[in-house]
Amino acid sequence: MNAQKIERMKELNALLEKAAEAYYNSGSTIMSDAEYDKLYDELESLEKETGVVLGGSRTQKVGFEVTSYLPKVAHPRRMLSLDKTKSREELAAWLGDHKGLLSWKLDGLTICLYYDDGKLTQAVSRGNGEVGEDMTANARHIKGIPAQIPFKGHLALRGEALIGYTDFERVNNTLPEGAEPYKNPRNLASGTLRSLDSKIVAERSVNFFAFALVSAEGYENNSFAERLDWLASMGFQCVYGKLVDKATVADTVAWFEREIQGNDFPSDGLVLTFDDVAYGQSLGETVHHPRNGIAFKWADETADTTLREIVWSPSRTGLINPVAVFDTVELEGTSVSRASLHNISIMKKLNLAVGDNVSVYKANMIIPVVGENNTPHDTDVVTPALPDACPACGAKLELRCSDDGVETLFCPDHDCPAKHIGRFEHFVSRDAMNIVGVSSSTIEDLVDNGIVRTYRDLFHLSEHREKIISLEGFGEKSYDQLVSAAEAARNTELYRVLYSLGIPNIGRSASRLICAEYHSPAELEKLTAEQLTLIDGIGEVLANDYVSFFKKQSNLDEYHALLAELKIKEPEQTNADSGIAGKTFVITGSVNIWKNRNELKAFVEANGGKVASAVSGKTDYLINNDSASTSGKNKKAKELGVPIITEEEFKAMV
Question: What share of the chain is helix, strand, coil (3-state, %, to 5)?
């Protein structure tokens, strides 16, 4: 029962965090104050009931801390590394006639947590096994570490702090210009957890997964798996595992092997631990490792192939990274023909030349890597010629060398399209220009190869037919689909064009409101802040951002070039004589007459009405088929005296 309540608390925290994010960072409202308060009260009630306060809970006002250094802390007992094997047979033999828990071996940083009187008192990194670093301030902002638990005795546990692949890519994509991207999630997690500013830890979404209960004063349980279940009931996020015996361990390893492809958290293998805790402890330990567990490391599937080319790929930070292109090989069930070499130094270290025979593999069964060069060279290989110009924008490149001797190429042009991939992703999205089927990877390929530098270029892809067809993953069919999608997007509405420009804080709703008042593209670029703030729903901040955007000549030039490619539909005429013209509605609950709420919203707007997201003093009617509902919107409407009407009543008004 406690586990269900904790899951509900996680759900509530996510909802409240999303609402707060929208309100404070974009100025939009996705739920009313009453709805927010209702969810907050439910969360607070569950925290009191369970005694668990999850890390980052919206009920806690944990301030960010900035420290000058991380103090060193000696561990009560040495933390040893596990012995390793790559053989399923050895796993079965090691387990013998005992049961064991087989779980993910997560690739992050091991942290020891200590709780007293239900509160986190210390978090210490593994360090060298004898001495670690005090990370308590940062731990308070790690997901999966509860700030408060119902257990009041002294509690010690261990787990892995890590960053998932999704957040790893997000962080790399938002690094400042010129910053060296993190090579893998573990490096990112390591740097983040050693940050002296705990705000960085919260922003980068570090997760903690408990993998062992060390001690809990007064708590007795001899099952390793049940001890983890108990930690989960305390609010901890725990590593996933399965109970096995020597007959099932090989099949279970195979199951994990299949699952790793869809696992967002980095894992470099599995851990097998005796479920009988007392038995495992009775085995003692060697100088190097404990005997109660063993690590299973994936045996990397390697393939030899011929290096055909080294191409240069621009990144969002301005770095131009070398990429090895080789004859296609099959690895871990997928076809692989490219692998990043990261920088010039790694390329030189591998002593690569076109035509060399190289060994490639997938690190952690996911990321393609050139492991070694199998072709001996009697003399130093002449490094493949470095490009002079950026492939994305043509700017002259700079060769840079870091303090530790790592050589990289850098594009100094701040307006380089590769540094602004996100704006093209937004431009083609469904609510913007709706160029169907254009993925983020397609955008990156088009920008990296200099095919797309401005919005206009997306409507001239036919000029680059041969180049596009030759790109990896493309062909005649995908090229035709791409061009057809762009052509179809030429016929569009003005509000889509405005929204697609990516003006700060001007979202889809604001774009609709502005274009409902001003119907010509020429008018849009000349609007003043005063004109904009007269529109209901457009505030001063949005108006100033809008005006600033169109004051920049480069934005105006791109806007004009884009307009020349489009056929903008005339705005649909609204029924100004209808019974709802000029009135503002809020829609909530399920609908019966219309297919969905979006269809009802479109009907309101077509008949001269407006639809708002939250009930306020400006709302004329709340449409809700359940007038007796205790929802936040209903409560707010009753407080303000806003009439609550059904669809039938609304239809009669029209």
Answer: 35, 25, 40
The domain defined by 51-297 folds into D-amino Acid Aminotransferase; Chain A, domain 1 (3.30.470)
Average pLDDT of the chain to the nearest whole number = 87
Q: Give the separation between CA 44 and CA 39, rounded to whole angstroms.
A: 9
Query: Among residues 5, 105, 526, 610, which one is catalytic?
Result: 105
- Please state which CATH number belongs to domain 584-653: 3.40.50.10190
Residue 566 pLDDT exceeds 90: yes
> Per residue in 567-615, pLDDT tens?
998 766 666 678 888 888 889 888 888 888 878 887 888 788 888 777 8
Residue 24 has pLDDT above 50, yes or no: no
Q: Kindly report the CATH class assigned to 303-410.
A: mainly beta
Over 50: is that where the pLDDT of 295 sits?
yes
Residue from 517, 515, 498, 506 nearest 539 by CA: 506
The Cα angle at residue 469 between residues 467 and 470, in degrees rounded to 5: 65
Q: Give the angle subtended at the CA of 81 by the CAs of 80 and 86, to the nearest 5°.
A: 155
Task: Report the topology of domain 417-489.
Answer: DNA polymerase; domain 1 (1.10.150)
Mark whether 635 is an active-site residue.
no
Between 3.40.630.30, 1.10.150.20, 3.30.70.20, 1.10.3720.10, what CATH number should domain 492-568 receive? 1.10.150.20
What pLDDT digit, counting tens, does each position of 81-104 carry?
888 888 899 999 999 999 999 999
